[in-house]
Write a structure and sequence with these properties.
30% helix; alpha/beta; DUF1501; 458 residues; Alkaline_phosphatase_core_sf; 18 strands; eight-stranded mixed sheet; 15% strand
């Protein structure tokens, strides 16, 4: 790629970031090729129904135990049912674990799907792919994250990106596989904007909205006129399609960095302290609050990773022995933080009149083994788990599907990752028969044949 560092200078480079647009002004910084650009310009096939809808995907990295959270089996033997008791909720049809008392208060606003499953290997990264794209990557084809598809088909509404990941993209999962949080075959231009910062920190700032330190305000303004740099570097470059594309991508990065609207959307100091404390003064809680602010400001899709990796961090990955979490660790550390932030988000969206237009979906890469292991934890289990949905046209207080008496396999209404992806697209108003430009220009279906939204939710 070309790097412009000043008048008459251009050389190749690699590893640039979005911030480098103001430092270098490159076409390749977003990884957008000319064919992808032309395809994006030709995407006039999108139905604008529900164009104001947005989605927040909470990805419970590590995978909660269905038996200890949302699919209790109180009549099962102790090694199956675990140590927790079910409690009643605001919905007469839903009971959940006692570790989620605040979820119980808003259970009339979300609905559970207790019969989710997938057939990929029981490794984290494979589940991350399946649950965020609707497919397992095969044949060298990386399918795009749902938010990247939304970005491609609808584009941004404001100076803010259409698709954002908080607080950053997923780390290692152990399988050395792509995690599914990227634009895939749609190209890096449709990768999510990753915050890459902890919004609970006192000095929280968004790195990609800060100009490089070595560029003063006067130089920053001059570099907005990237055409002058191009003219002085390569005389013929301005007349090419690549130059036009460079200017478009540079303008998008410049808009984000210089937009008052964007800065204010990310500025949590605008929130009353009691609101921030209601969400919880921790990374996940402040990410949930920030997701509400971003949706309110026009972001179409936000993904919140509850954790960043399953290694050296207390997560939902409750194998029972170090470096993983125990069931007690989940109860005492993970559940209170998660319960507080989720209930605050749902109540806040509802109180602001935003819940009907904002889908909140909680997913994970798989469930946990029905039987407690010798270390006092539960292991990976993609054969059956629970996901849940609120807002965005979903009717709350319902239960779709069920598992067998030990929570091991779906007993009825099995739901695959493709069906879950179709449910998100349906809520956002997309025609499930939409075709994307796949690898080598071949048409690629939005969802696989036979995959449909979970109609019972709506």
């Amino acid at each position: 790629m070309l790097k412009f560092t000043g008048k008459g200078t251009a050389h190749t480079c690699s590893g640039v970031t979005r911030r480098d647009f103001l430092q270098v002004g490159t076409l390749g910084a977003m990884g957008l090729s000319l064919p992808q650009y032309l395809e994006a310009k030709e995407r006039g096939m999108v139905d604008k129904k529900n164009d104001n809808r947005a989605a927040i995907m909470i990805f419970n990295l590590g995978a909660p135990s269905q038996l200890d959270t949302f699919d209790m089996k109180p009549e099962a033997p102790s090694e199956i049912r675990g140590p927790f008791k079910p409690i009643d909720t605001a919905s007469p049809d839903i009971n959940i674990s006692e570790i989620f008392p605040l979820h119980a208060r808003v259970a009339d606003k979300f609905s559970l799907v207790r019969s989710c499953y997938h057939t990929a290997a029981a490794v984290h990264d494979a589940g991350w792919q399946m649950m965020q794209t609707g497919r397992l990557f095969t044949g060298g084809i990386n399918t795009p994250h749902i938010g990247s598809v939304v970005d491609y088909l609808r584009g941004r509404k404001t100076d803010l990106p259409a698709n954002v990941v908080l607080p950053e993209t997923m780390g290692r999962g152990g399988g050395n596989l792509p995690n599914g949080q990227a634009g895939g075959f749609l190209g890096k231009a449709h990768d999510p904007f990753a915050l890459m910062a902890d919004p609970s920190k006192p000095n929280f700032k968004v790195p990609d909205m800060l100009p490089p330190q070595e560029i003063g305000s006067a130089r920053l303004e001059r570099r907005r006129k990237i055409r002058d740099v191009v003219d002085s570097t390569i005389d013929h470059f301005e007349s090419t399609e690549d130059a036009k594309l460079l200017n478009g991508n540079f303008h998008s990065a410049y808009r984000l960095m210089t937009s008052k609207e964007a800065r204010e959307a990310f500025d949590l100091s605008k929130e009353p302290m009691k609101v921030r404390e209601r969400y919880g003064m921790n990374r996940f809680g402040q990410c949930c609050l920030l997701s509400r602010r971003l949706v309110e400001a026009g972001v179409r899709f936000v993904t919140i990773n509850t954790f960043l990796t399953v290694f050296n961090e207390i997560t939902w990955d409750i194998h029972g022995s170090k470096p993983f979490t125990s069931i007690e660790g989940m109860k005492n550390i993970v559940a209170p933080m998660y319960d507080q932030a989720y209930s605050a988000l749902i109540e806040d969206l509802y109180d602001r009149g935003m819940l009907d237009e904002t889908l909140v979906c909680n997913v994970a890469e798989f469930g946990r083994t029905p039987k407690v292991n010798p270390a006092g934890g539960r292991d990976h289990w993609p054969q059956c788990f629970t996901c849940y949905f609120a807002g965005g046209g979903v009717q709350g207080g319902r239960v779709v599907g069920s598992s067998d008496p030990i929570g091991g396999v779906p007993a009825d209404r099995p739901v695959s990752p493709g069906d879950l992806a179709a449910t998100v697209y349906h809520s956002l108003g997309f025609d499930l028969h939409t075709v994307l430009p796949g690898p080598a220009g071949r048409p690629f279906p939005l969802v696989d044949v036979g995959k449909q939204e979970i109609r019972e939710l709506f």
